[in-house]
Every structure is written in structure tokens, then in C-alpha cells.
Amino acid sequence: MSDQKILNALSYFSLFFAPFIVPIAIWIFSGTENTKHHAKVALFTHILPTIGGIITALSIGVVGFSTNSANATGFIGLGLIVAVGIMTVILAIFNIIRGIQALMAKEDNPLFNSID
User: Fold this and answer.
1) Are 19 and 10 in contact (CB under 8 A)?
2) Residuewise pLDDT in 10s, the chain (116 residues)
3) Are 99 and 13 in contact (CB under 8 A)?
4) How would you class 98 by CB atoms within 10 Å of its CB: exposed for 0-12, middle for 13-18, buried for 19 or more?
5) Sequence ranges of the domains in the chain
């Protein structure tokens, strides 16, 4: 198994132990464009739930301050929390699948190794 395949998979699997640090380190210190590409994709999919959580918290705060209705704040807040939760689960599944594909990819597989 090549180091490139392991680094590609590690970029995606780092979601479970160091979601920002590992892809950034691989992106900066990697020597190949293919590995840098996978690190960028993994970093993007690790950042999306964080951005969604921040937007959810800000939205709940804005709605809470702008209305006097606890029902509206609760309804909007719950809807956003559920949406971000679903997005987080989908992105976690995506990262697991891409990590497994990276480990199982053949060295000459242009579909998985391309940076298109």
C-alpha cells in the first residue's frame, strides 16, 4: 500500500480524531497534487458542519431577539438543528466512503486519482 493512498484515506478518516489539523497538514506538506486535492476536499467536508452550526446559532439568536414568540424561535431553531444534523451525518458517511475508496483504489485508476 502506497503512502499516497494512506494519506488520502487519512484525510477523510481524520473526521473522527482531528478534523481540521490533519487535512491542513497533509495539504501543506504533501508532495503530490492528488493528495493535496483529497486533503482539500476532506477539509471542506469537515468545515461545512461547523459553518452550519454557526449559522444555526446566529439564526436562533436573531429570531429570538426579533420576535416575542418562543414558539417561532423554537420551531426555526429545531428545524435548523435537524437540517444541520442531517447534513453532518451525510458528510460523515461521505467521508467514510471516500476513505475506503482511497484505500482500495488501484494505482492506475484514473477515475479516483484524477483531480478534476
Assistant:
1) no
2) 678 888 888 899 998 888 889 999 989 988 888 889 899 999 999 999 889 889 888 888 888 777 777 777 778 888 888 999 999 999 999 999 999 988 888 765 554 555 44
3) yes
4) buried
5) 3-105
User: Environment class of residue 114 by beta-carbon count within 10 Å: exposed (0-12), middle (13-18) or buried (19+)?
Assistant: exposed
The full DSSP string for 49-92 is HHHHHHHHHHHHHHHHHH-S-HHHHHHHHHHHHHHHHHHHHHHH
Instruction: Give 38's contacts (C-beta < 8 A, 6+ positions apart).
Output: 7, 8, 11, 12, 26, 98, 102
Q: Which DSSP letter does residue 32 get?
A: S
